[in-house]
Every structure is written in C-alpha cells, then in structure tokens.
Amino acid sequence: MTTAEPQAQSKPIPRPDEASLEFFEGARRGELMLSRCIACGAWLAPAARICTECLSEDLRWERASGRGVVFTFGVMHQFYHDGFIDELPYNVAVVELEEGLRLNSNIVNVPNEAIRVGMPVAVTFSEQGDGIYLPRFEPAGD
Amino acid sequence: MGLLSGRAAIAGVGITEMTREPIGTTDQVAGRAIRLALEDAGLTKDDVDGLLINAGVTNDISIGLQRTLGFRNLRLMNHMNAAGSTAGQMVHYAALAIDAGMANAVVCVFADTPLRGGSAGAAYGQVRASTGVQALGPAYGFFGANTGYALAARRHMATYGTTHDHFGAIAVSNRKWAGMNPRAMQRRPMTLEDYHNSRWIIEPFHLFDCTLVSNGSVAVVVTSAGRARELRQPPVYILGMGQGHPGNPNRAGFENEMNTGAQIARETAFGMAGIDNDDVDLCELYDCYTYTTLVTLEDYGFCAKGEGGAFIEDGKLEPGGSLPTNTGGGQLSGYYMWGMTPVSEGVIQARGQGGERQVEKHDCVLVSTQGGVLDYHATLILSPHPSNA
Q: ipTM of this model?
C-alpha cells in the first residue's frame, strides 16, 4: 500500500469576475480601487451593486488613498488550507481607510508581534499567483 | 408590561445525544429531538399544527422535514434563518402566531451534524467561493467564524484593556457548570492555567475561548399559556421577547464589534416583561466564544460598556455566584446547538429541573441568541410564573 505525497497547494487565488474586474485590474496597476456612490459620495466595498447609505445604484469605481490604520487584527495558528501551511502563524487584519471604509486584508513587512491596533498603514500590492495581485498593507509613517 | 407577556409558553423540550460521533442524518436527528419534545410535553405528532425549522452549518434540513416526519395538520410552517439567533426568533414567531390564533402547538427545531470524520475546523472553515470579491477572504486567510470573533475581541481588548484572564474566567466558569450537566461534552475540570496553556486558534483566542462543535438536535414545543397548564410539564412562560439586528457597516464611526443587537433586543424584551436587570436571576447567553459572553453582558446593561472584564472576574457567573450564567456549560463546554443551547438550558432551569446544577432562584431567566459576527440578536425572558408581578 502506498500513501500519496501531500500535494503542494497555493493559497486560494481569486478569479476576477465582471463585477470585480476593476478591483483586480487596479491591484495589478498598483491602485486601490473601491466603489463610490455618485449620489451621496459614500465609499463602498469594491464591486458594490447598491449604496449601503442611500440605496442609490449610481456607483462608479474610484481610486482610494490607500492610507489608513489597523482597526483590529488577529494571528491565525489554526490550519484550514494547505496553501497557508508554511505561513502559520499569519496575520489577518481589518484596515480602516482614510476614506472611512474598512477592508479585510493582511499586514506585511512587519513581524506579527509588532502589529498594533491604531498603527498607521499604507497599501502595497503583492502577487497571489497566476498574475492576480491583491492589496495588502504595511506600516507607514504618520 | 406588554400585552403578549405570559400568553405563550414552552411546554416541551427535546434534546438528543450531543456527540462528535455520527448519530444519523440531519433530518432523522431532527425527528428524534421532536419526538423527545412531544413526549416531554405529553403531546402527539397529530397535535402539532406549526413547524419552524432552522438548519445549522450543514444546511441540509428545510421544509422537506414536513414530509420526512409526516406532519399532516400544519397551519404554520417555515424554514427560518437568522444564523445563530434563529432559535430565539423561532420561539418569538411561534408565540406571536399562537397569540394571533394561527396555530396552537408549534414545534421549533434546530439540527446539525457537521462532524463527519473531519475536524470541526473543516466543517466550519470551508472555502466557499473562488470568484470575485467573495473570494478575497480565503485569499487573505480569513477562515471560519473564529476569525471574525477574534477580530472583534481584539478590538475590545485594545479599546478597554480586556485581558485573557477575563476571557479565561468565563471559560473556567462554563466548565464548572458543565461538570454538573450529564449532557455536556467537556466536563473535565479546567483551571485558569489550563486555559492559558491551551493552544492558540487565532490570537487573541485560545482553544478554550472557542465553542466546541456538536452533532445533535434540539426541539421545543410552544403553545398557549392555557394549553401549557394542562400538559405534562410545568409551563415555562414567555414574559418578554425582543430582537436587534445592527449588522456591521464596516466603516468609520461604527463599533459593532463591541456593540451587539442585545442593546436593542433588551429594550423590547425587558419592556414587554416589565423587568429590569435586578430582576434577572440567571442568564443563558449565546457563548460561541468567551468574548461573546462578556460583550453580551455589557449590552444587556449588567455593567457599563467596556467594564465586562472587571464585572465577571470575581466569579459571579459561576455556581454559587450572584449572576449564574450558562448553567449547562453553555456552548463552550456543554453542546453547540446554536441558539438552542441557551434556549434549552433556559427551559430546564425555569422548570427547576436542573438537578445538581439547578439555580435556586429561577423566577426570571434571560435567554439570548446571537448570530453572524454579532450581527443578529434575539432575547427571551422565561419564567415559571405567568407574570413578573
């Protein structure tokens, strides 16, 4: 009887769809693209279909500053997915952007032990695989 | 006091074995809990004229349960979903329908069988999307409910100085209660040191901050107060009901990680029951994580916002404490049947059938069910008396 070798697996790679194309294209260009309501000006999650503040469907893509602070974070030790096995423990974070919107992401270029709630951060982009780039955040000066 | 207070009652509760082992298909297990609940109430299947169904993470029971279980007299039926808070809401809608004359004996059932040979994490942490913005969570390594709650707990710790000792005190208290509950899945004594030594799941959560996971089912039978008095068990009157669903706007100016729907649900439920916090004898709170207990106590107004850690650290939630809480071990050490964990233990305590763990004064039992990542909330005020007067 033989045992199959564990297959090295990459982290999940998001596939752009029509609604999210501009977000992923922006990430590849090095720009953080979010949805924004033309009617009331609210910044919205990428690929929003309708404004959570005024219910307008009149939205457009707009480039965000990419600056913000760590709103909260955690350090994952639990194994869920083969693609993360070599990264445990890794951090997950919520970043509050200057625009007011909060995004789920990771904090990079800093040890997990040095991450603090309220820490200023700025967006940076890294390749997840297959030419798909994702926004992540690194410590920034005040 | 509201017009509805005390007009409906829980007349039966059925709790299956709670286990990590396979115990049958989810619909079969649901049927088992319903059979137990009807036996408990002294009712037959033909007496049931309402059926409200809540599926768990396996999401494999729905309105088809009517056919599977052969219910033929239903005047009321629905498959309901507000995540973990649904159990409280099913009882709300059952009580409202009974008071409106739309049904007389409504079964509310939750069943879930997520443990099928894999880990609990496998059941709750599946990658569900690979396309579009829905796929970003797994790409960043956000998996399962543990992540959202850990992030919320961190926010509370950073804002108010809440500590692991506070969370640990809650875990230890639950385990003490579980030691007196034959149904509890974790009964081995636990010290604060054991808590601190338990492995990290996702910082700031240790293993013992997180609920266990169970295969099982719980059903309750809701009927009118008058009918309940004629049945086998002491009626458990529903004195108050309320809901609050703030969601999470995920934008500046909101702190929903630290302010749950319990704040809103409390106003409605306490108002209907005509009670204040001093009237509450014991609490059965949704405790998927230690932090959930802490933030929920704050939101019900037992202490000021941010002071939950200091409030609980004197052991008042423990057996013999001044505010007995999660008296069956809760979800952390008892069994994880979503909102049916607090509902079922609330019924047992209100009846005075808690055996070794029975709380002496049990005239007013606060039951809270909670879902999403603190998005949805439902409250029940239960009592062996038809009014608080």
A: 0.94
